Amino acid sequence: MKNNRLAILGGRPVRKKSFPSWPIHGKREKELLLEVLESGRWWYGEKVREFEERFASYQGAKYGITTVNGTVALEIALIVSGIGAGSEVIIPSYSFVATASAVLKANAVPVFVDIDIDTFNIDIDAVKDAITPKTRAIIPVHFAGLPVEMDRLVAVARKHSLKVIEDAAHGWGSKYRGKGVGTIGDAGIFSFQHSKNITSGEGGIILTNDKKLADDARSYSNCGRGMNGPWYEHYLLGGNYRMTEFHAALLLAQLEKLGEQNRIRERNAKILNTGLSRIEGIKVLKGNPNVRSRAYHLYCFRFKSQEFGGLARERFLEALQAEGIPCRPGYPYPIYRNPLFLKRGSGPEYCPVSCHYYGKDMDYSKVVCPQAEEACREAVWIPQNLLLGNEGDMKDIVKAIRKIRDNVDEL
Q: 93 near 114, Cβ under 8 Å?
Protein backbone atom coordinates (compact mmCIF):
# COMPACT_ATOMS: atom_id res chain seq x y z
CA MET A 1 0.00 0.00 0.00
CA LYS A 2 1.34 3.41 -0.96
CA ASN A 3 0.47 5.01 2.39
CA ASN A 4 2.40 2.26 4.17
CA ARG A 5 5.50 2.58 2.03
CA LEU A 6 8.60 3.32 4.07
CA ALA A 7 9.58 6.99 4.13
CA ILE A 8 13.20 6.12 3.37
CA LEU A 9 11.93 4.69 0.05
CA GLY A 10 9.74 7.68 -0.78
CA GLY A 11 6.65 6.97 1.28
CA ARG A 12 4.87 9.26 3.70
CA PRO A 13 6.59 9.41 7.11
CA VAL A 14 4.68 8.46 10.23
CA ARG A 15 5.21 11.99 11.53
CA LYS A 16 6.47 15.35 10.39
CA LYS A 17 5.66 17.08 13.67
CA SER A 18 8.64 17.74 15.93
CA PHE A 19 9.04 16.31 19.41
CA PRO A 20 9.63 18.56 22.46
CA SER A 21 12.96 20.37 22.07
CA TRP A 22 15.73 20.51 24.67
CA PRO A 23 16.69 22.32 26.81
CA ILE A 24 13.37 23.66 28.07
CA HIS A 25 13.45 27.06 29.73
CA GLY A 26 11.01 29.77 30.65
CA LYS A 27 10.24 32.73 32.84
CA ARG A 28 11.78 31.24 35.98
CA GLU A 29 15.22 30.71 34.39
CA LYS A 30 15.23 34.29 33.08
CA GLU A 31 14.14 35.64 36.45
CA LEU A 32 16.90 33.90 38.42
CA LEU A 33 19.59 34.67 35.85
CA LEU A 34 18.65 38.34 35.86
CA GLU A 35 18.70 38.31 39.66
CA VAL A 36 22.32 37.11 39.59
CA LEU A 37 23.27 39.51 36.81
CA GLU A 38 21.94 42.55 38.61
CA SER A 39 23.30 41.52 42.01
CA GLY A 40 26.89 41.87 40.79
CA ARG A 41 27.69 38.67 42.75
CA TRP A 42 28.41 36.20 39.99
CA TRP A 43 30.96 33.99 41.72
CA TYR A 44 30.35 30.91 43.92
CA GLY A 45 27.93 32.40 46.41
CA GLU A 46 24.37 32.19 47.67
CA LYS A 47 22.80 30.56 44.62
CA VAL A 48 25.47 27.84 44.55
CA ARG A 49 24.90 27.07 48.24
CA GLU A 50 21.13 27.08 47.79
CA PHE A 51 21.29 24.65 44.88
CA GLU A 52 23.72 22.35 46.70
CA GLU A 53 21.35 22.16 49.66
CA ARG A 54 18.22 21.71 47.54
CA PHE A 55 19.65 19.05 45.27
CA ALA A 56 21.20 17.12 48.16
CA SER A 57 17.82 17.22 49.92
CA TYR A 58 16.03 16.18 46.71
CA GLN A 59 18.17 13.02 46.50
CA GLY A 60 18.28 12.48 50.27
CA ALA A 61 21.93 13.28 51.04
CA LYS A 62 23.40 15.39 53.83
CA TYR A 63 26.00 17.20 51.73
CA GLY A 64 26.31 18.48 48.17
CA ILE A 65 29.43 19.98 46.56
CA THR A 66 29.03 21.48 43.09
CA THR A 67 31.69 21.31 40.39
CA VAL A 68 32.20 22.54 36.83
CA ASN A 69 31.05 19.20 35.35
CA GLY A 70 30.23 15.60 36.19
CA THR A 71 33.60 14.25 35.04
CA VAL A 72 35.48 16.45 37.52
CA ALA A 73 32.95 15.49 40.21
CA LEU A 74 33.86 11.83 39.72
CA GLU A 75 37.59 12.55 39.71
CA ILE A 76 37.32 14.50 42.98
CA ALA A 77 35.09 11.87 44.62
CA LEU A 78 37.68 9.20 43.86
CA ILE A 79 40.67 11.25 45.02
CA VAL A 80 39.14 12.37 48.33
CA SER A 81 38.02 8.77 48.94
CA GLY A 82 41.68 7.76 49.02
CA ILE A 83 41.86 6.17 45.58
CA GLY A 84 45.30 6.66 44.02
CA ALA A 85 48.55 5.07 42.89
CA GLY A 86 48.46 1.28 42.90
CA SER A 87 44.66 1.14 43.25
CA GLU A 88 42.29 -0.78 41.01
CA VAL A 89 38.74 0.47 40.49
CA ILE A 90 36.09 -1.83 39.05
CA ILE A 91 33.81 -0.19 36.47
CA PRO A 92 31.27 -1.34 33.87
CA SER A 93 32.47 -1.62 30.29
CA TYR A 94 29.33 0.03 28.87
CA SER A 95 29.39 3.69 29.89
CA PHE A 96 30.69 7.07 28.82
CA VAL A 97 34.49 7.27 28.78
CA ALA A 98 34.53 9.62 31.81
CA THR A 99 33.70 6.69 34.09
CA ALA A 100 37.10 5.26 33.17
CA SER A 101 39.12 8.41 32.51
CA ALA A 102 38.27 9.71 35.99
CA VAL A 103 39.94 6.61 37.44
CA LEU A 104 43.09 7.33 35.40
CA LYS A 105 43.02 10.97 36.54
CA ALA A 106 43.04 9.70 40.12
CA ASN A 107 46.24 7.80 39.18
CA ALA A 108 44.43 4.47 39.56
CA VAL A 109 43.79 1.61 37.14
CA PRO A 110 40.32 0.85 35.70
CA VAL A 111 39.26 -2.79 35.70
CA PHE A 112 36.44 -3.37 33.22
CA VAL A 113 33.68 -5.86 33.93
CA ASP A 114 30.67 -6.93 31.92
CA ILE A 115 27.10 -5.70 32.15
CA ASP A 116 23.74 -7.38 32.48
CA ILE A 117 22.46 -7.36 28.90
CA ASP A 118 18.85 -7.05 30.13
CA THR A 119 19.47 -3.77 31.99
CA PHE A 120 22.78 -2.37 30.64
CA ASN A 121 23.90 -2.04 34.28
CA ILE A 122 27.01 -3.56 35.86
CA ASP A 123 26.97 -7.34 36.39
CA ILE A 124 27.48 -7.81 40.13
CA ASP A 125 28.65 -11.42 39.74
CA ALA A 126 31.35 -10.13 37.38
CA VAL A 127 32.32 -7.57 40.04
CA LYS A 128 32.88 -10.38 42.55
CA ASP A 129 35.16 -12.19 40.13
CA ALA A 130 37.20 -9.05 39.39
CA ILE A 131 38.18 -8.20 42.98
CA THR A 132 41.91 -8.50 43.71
CA PRO A 133 44.12 -7.41 46.62
CA LYS A 134 44.62 -4.11 44.75
CA THR A 135 40.91 -3.31 44.38
CA ARG A 136 39.95 -0.20 46.33
CA ALA A 137 36.63 0.90 44.85
CA ILE A 138 33.67 0.08 42.62
CA ILE A 139 31.87 2.58 40.40
CA PRO A 140 28.33 1.42 39.58
CA VAL A 141 26.72 3.40 36.74
CA HIS A 142 22.95 3.81 36.96
CA PHE A 143 22.69 3.60 33.20
CA ALA A 144 19.93 5.63 31.52
CA GLY A 145 18.60 6.32 35.03
CA LEU A 146 17.89 2.70 36.06
CA PRO A 147 19.35 2.07 39.53
CA VAL A 148 21.83 -0.75 39.97
CA GLU A 149 20.92 -3.45 42.53
CA MET A 150 22.67 -1.46 45.24
CA ASP A 151 21.92 -3.79 48.19
CA ARG A 152 23.85 -6.59 46.51
CA LEU A 153 26.65 -4.34 45.30
CA VAL A 154 27.16 -2.59 48.64
CA ALA A 155 27.22 -5.97 50.43
CA VAL A 156 30.03 -7.11 48.11
CA ALA A 157 31.91 -3.86 48.66
CA ARG A 158 31.61 -3.95 52.45
CA LYS A 159 32.79 -7.58 52.57
CA HIS A 160 36.03 -6.49 50.89
CA SER A 161 36.31 -3.02 52.50
CA LEU A 162 35.85 -1.26 49.15
CA LYS A 163 34.55 2.24 48.47
CA VAL A 164 31.41 2.65 46.37
CA ILE A 165 31.31 5.79 44.23
CA GLU A 166 28.03 5.96 42.33
CA ASP A 167 28.07 7.37 38.81
CA ALA A 168 24.54 8.77 38.83
CA ALA A 169 25.11 11.10 35.87
CA HIS A 170 21.76 9.82 34.47
CA GLY A 171 19.95 9.45 37.79
CA TRP A 172 18.35 12.73 38.98
CA GLY A 173 15.33 11.58 41.01
CA SER A 174 15.90 7.83 40.62
CA LYS A 175 15.31 5.88 43.82
CA TYR A 176 16.27 2.38 44.86
CA ARG A 177 14.25 0.93 47.76
CA GLY A 178 13.19 4.49 48.56
CA LYS A 179 16.74 5.88 48.64
CA GLY A 180 17.95 8.37 46.07
CA VAL A 181 20.77 7.10 43.88
CA GLY A 182 24.04 8.85 44.64
CA THR A 183 23.34 8.59 48.39
CA ILE A 184 23.62 4.82 48.90
CA GLY A 185 27.36 4.32 48.52
CA ASP A 186 30.17 6.41 50.01
CA ALA A 187 29.57 9.18 47.47
CA GLY A 188 27.69 9.79 44.25
CA ILE A 189 28.09 12.17 41.33
CA PHE A 190 25.66 13.80 38.90
CA SER A 191 26.08 15.70 35.64
CA PHE A 192 24.22 18.79 34.43
CA GLN A 193 25.67 18.84 30.91
CA HIS A 194 23.54 20.22 28.06
CA SER A 195 21.78 16.94 27.16
CA LYS A 196 20.97 16.01 30.76
CA ASN A 197 17.45 16.02 32.25
CA ILE A 198 18.38 18.99 34.46
CA THR A 199 20.96 21.23 32.82
CA SER A 200 22.96 24.43 33.04
CA GLY A 201 24.97 23.64 29.90
CA GLU A 202 27.73 22.16 32.05
CA GLY A 203 27.99 21.41 35.74
CA GLY A 204 28.19 18.59 38.24
CA ILE A 205 27.73 17.75 41.91
CA ILE A 206 29.12 15.30 44.49
CA LEU A 207 26.70 13.98 47.11
CA THR A 208 27.70 12.20 50.31
CA ASN A 209 26.59 11.59 53.88
CA ASP A 210 30.21 11.60 55.11
CA LYS A 211 31.20 15.00 56.52
CA LYS A 212 34.95 14.51 56.15
CA LEU A 213 34.59 13.40 52.55
CA ALA A 214 32.33 16.42 51.92
CA ASP A 215 34.81 18.83 53.53
CA ASP A 216 37.70 17.36 51.55
CA ALA A 217 35.71 17.52 48.31
CA ARG A 218 34.84 21.16 49.00
CA SER A 219 38.48 21.96 49.68
CA TYR A 220 39.73 20.08 46.61
CA SER A 221 37.25 21.86 44.34
CA ASN A 222 38.10 25.26 45.87
CA CYS A 223 41.88 25.44 45.29
CA GLY A 224 42.62 23.31 48.36
CA ARG A 225 41.41 25.93 50.83
CA GLY A 226 40.35 24.94 54.31
CA MET A 227 36.74 25.19 55.44
CA ASN A 228 36.04 28.76 56.64
CA GLY A 229 39.78 29.44 56.77
CA PRO A 230 41.76 32.42 55.48
CA TRP A 231 41.65 33.06 51.74
CA TYR A 232 45.35 32.28 51.24
CA GLU A 233 45.53 29.15 53.37
CA HIS A 234 45.67 25.97 51.27
CA TYR A 235 45.74 22.41 52.60
CA LEU A 236 45.15 20.11 49.61
CA LEU A 237 46.59 19.97 46.11
CA GLY A 238 43.23 20.90 44.66
CA GLY A 239 42.17 23.10 41.79
CA ASN A 240 39.58 25.61 40.69
CA TYR A 241 36.55 23.45 39.90
CA ARG A 242 33.89 25.85 41.21
CA MET A 243 30.43 26.39 39.76
CA THR A 244 29.28 29.95 39.01
CA GLU A 245 26.16 31.68 40.33
CA PHE A 246 24.74 31.72 36.79
CA HIS A 247 24.94 27.94 36.53
CA ALA A 248 23.33 27.55 39.93
CA ALA A 249 20.52 29.96 39.02
CA LEU A 250 19.66 27.89 35.95
CA LEU A 251 19.77 24.68 37.96
CA LEU A 252 17.50 26.04 40.69
CA ALA A 253 14.90 26.85 38.06
CA GLN A 254 15.37 23.50 36.33
CA LEU A 255 15.07 21.61 39.61
CA GLU A 256 11.59 23.05 40.15
CA LYS A 257 10.42 21.30 36.97
CA LEU A 258 12.30 18.02 37.39
CA GLY A 259 9.77 16.07 39.46
CA GLU A 260 6.90 16.60 37.04
CA GLN A 261 9.12 15.99 34.00
CA ASN A 262 10.33 12.72 35.51
CA ARG A 263 6.73 11.60 36.03
CA ILE A 264 5.92 12.37 32.39
CA ARG A 265 8.96 10.42 31.18
CA GLU A 266 8.09 7.42 33.35
CA ARG A 267 4.51 7.40 32.11
CA ASN A 268 5.59 7.58 28.49
CA ALA A 269 8.27 4.91 28.94
CA LYS A 270 5.53 2.52 30.11
CA ILE A 271 3.59 3.21 26.90
CA LEU A 272 6.70 2.42 24.86
CA ASN A 273 7.40 -0.72 26.87
CA THR A 274 3.89 -2.02 26.22
CA GLY A 275 3.88 -1.20 22.51
CA LEU A 276 7.43 -2.23 21.62
CA SER A 277 7.30 -5.51 23.54
CA ARG A 278 4.71 -6.68 20.99
CA ILE A 279 7.03 -6.19 18.02
CA GLU A 280 9.10 -9.20 17.01
CA GLY A 281 12.79 -8.36 16.98
CA ILE A 282 12.54 -5.51 19.49
CA LYS A 283 13.67 -6.42 23.01
CA VAL A 284 12.63 -4.05 25.77
CA LEU A 285 15.02 -3.78 28.72
CA LYS A 286 13.96 -5.05 32.13
CA GLY A 287 12.81 -2.82 34.94
CA ASN A 288 13.40 -3.43 38.63
CA PRO A 289 10.68 -4.09 41.25
CA ASN A 290 12.82 -2.29 43.85
CA VAL A 291 12.68 0.94 41.81
CA ARG A 292 9.60 3.09 42.39
CA SER A 293 10.90 6.29 40.90
CA ARG A 294 13.20 6.44 37.88
CA ALA A 295 14.78 9.11 35.74
CA TYR A 296 14.93 8.29 32.05
CA HIS A 297 17.91 10.03 30.50
CA LEU A 298 17.52 7.61 27.61
CA TYR A 299 14.92 5.12 26.54
CA CYS A 300 16.85 2.07 25.35
CA PHE A 301 15.84 -1.09 23.56
CA ARG A 302 17.68 -3.86 21.72
CA PHE A 303 17.33 -4.37 17.98
CA LYS A 304 17.64 -8.04 17.02
CA SER A 305 18.88 -8.00 13.44
CA GLN A 306 18.26 -11.69 12.78
CA GLU A 307 14.57 -11.24 13.62
CA PHE A 308 14.38 -8.41 11.08
CA GLY A 309 15.60 -10.68 8.31
CA GLY A 310 19.25 -9.75 8.84
CA LEU A 311 18.61 -5.99 8.47
CA ALA A 312 21.60 -4.01 9.73
CA ARG A 313 20.91 -1.85 12.76
CA GLU A 314 22.31 1.20 10.95
CA ARG A 315 19.79 0.73 8.13
CA PHE A 316 17.00 0.31 10.70
CA LEU A 317 18.03 3.58 12.33
CA GLU A 318 18.09 5.37 8.98
CA ALA A 319 14.59 4.11 8.27
CA LEU A 320 13.34 5.10 11.72
CA GLN A 321 14.79 8.61 11.39
CA ALA A 322 13.14 8.94 7.98
CA GLU A 323 9.81 8.19 9.67
CA GLY A 324 10.40 11.24 11.88
CA ILE A 325 11.77 9.53 15.00
CA PRO A 326 15.14 10.84 16.33
CA CYS A 327 17.29 7.94 17.56
CA ARG A 328 20.90 6.86 18.04
CA PRO A 329 22.87 3.59 18.11
CA GLY A 330 24.58 4.32 21.42
CA TYR A 331 28.22 3.48 22.07
CA PRO A 332 29.97 1.92 19.04
CA TYR A 333 32.18 -0.26 21.26
CA PRO A 334 32.91 -0.81 24.98
CA ILE A 335 35.17 1.70 26.73
CA TYR A 336 38.17 -0.64 26.75
CA ARG A 337 38.35 -0.60 22.95
CA ASN A 338 38.95 3.17 22.88
CA PRO A 339 42.45 4.08 21.59
CA LEU A 340 43.21 5.60 25.00
CA PHE A 341 43.25 2.12 26.55
CA LEU A 342 45.07 0.34 23.74
CA LYS A 343 48.34 2.26 24.13
CA ARG A 344 50.98 0.19 25.87
CA GLY A 345 54.48 0.89 27.09
CA SER A 346 56.61 1.66 30.10
CA GLY A 347 57.64 4.86 31.75
CA PRO A 348 55.86 7.94 33.11
CA GLU A 349 53.83 8.62 29.98
CA TYR A 350 52.06 5.27 30.39
CA CYS A 351 51.15 5.80 34.04
CA PRO A 352 49.14 4.81 35.98
CA VAL A 353 49.16 1.38 34.32
CA SER A 354 52.98 1.45 34.20
CA CYS A 355 53.28 2.89 37.73
CA HIS A 356 55.67 0.87 39.88
CA TYR A 357 53.17 1.10 42.75
CA TYR A 358 50.78 -0.90 40.58
CA GLY A 359 53.30 -3.57 39.63
CA LYS A 360 50.98 -5.63 37.43
CA ASP A 361 50.56 -6.12 33.71
CA MET A 362 47.30 -4.71 32.36
CA ASP A 363 46.64 -5.35 28.67
CA TYR A 364 43.26 -3.91 27.73
CA SER A 365 43.52 -5.39 24.23
CA LYS A 366 42.80 -8.77 25.85
CA VAL A 367 39.67 -7.60 27.66
CA VAL A 368 36.43 -9.02 26.29
CA CYS A 369 33.03 -8.37 27.87
CA PRO A 370 30.54 -10.27 25.68
CA GLN A 371 27.37 -8.64 27.03
CA ALA A 372 28.78 -5.14 26.57
CA GLU A 373 29.87 -6.05 23.03
CA GLU A 374 26.35 -7.30 22.33
CA ALA A 375 24.82 -4.10 23.71
CA CYS A 376 27.05 -2.08 21.39
CA ARG A 377 25.77 -4.11 18.42
CA GLU A 378 22.10 -3.99 19.37
CA ALA A 379 21.29 -0.90 21.43
CA VAL A 380 18.99 1.83 20.17
CA TRP A 381 18.75 5.02 22.20
CA ILE A 382 15.82 7.41 22.15
CA PRO A 383 16.74 10.74 23.81
CA GLN A 384 14.98 11.90 26.96
CA ASN A 385 13.26 14.94 25.43
CA LEU A 386 11.08 12.68 23.25
CA LEU A 387 9.68 11.20 26.47
CA LEU A 388 8.29 14.65 27.35
CA GLY A 389 5.76 14.28 24.54
CA ASN A 390 2.19 13.03 24.85
CA GLU A 391 0.62 9.60 24.46
CA GLY A 392 0.13 10.18 20.73
CA ASP A 393 3.83 10.92 20.32
CA MET A 394 4.73 7.61 21.98
CA LYS A 395 2.26 5.76 19.76
CA ASP A 396 3.95 7.33 16.74
CA ILE A 397 7.30 5.87 17.85
CA VAL A 398 5.72 2.43 18.18
CA LYS A 399 3.87 2.86 14.88
CA ALA A 400 7.07 3.81 13.05
CA ILE A 401 8.94 0.76 14.34
CA ARG A 402 5.98 -1.49 13.54
CA LYS A 403 5.87 -0.01 10.03
CA ILE A 404 9.54 -0.88 9.47
CA ARG A 405 9.02 -4.39 10.83
CA ASP A 406 6.03 -4.96 8.53
CA ASN A 407 7.92 -3.72 5.48
CA VAL A 408 11.40 -5.01 6.29
CA ASP A 409 11.57 -6.98 3.04
CA GLU A 410 11.65 -3.67 1.13
CA LEU A 411 14.92 -2.77 2.83
A: yes
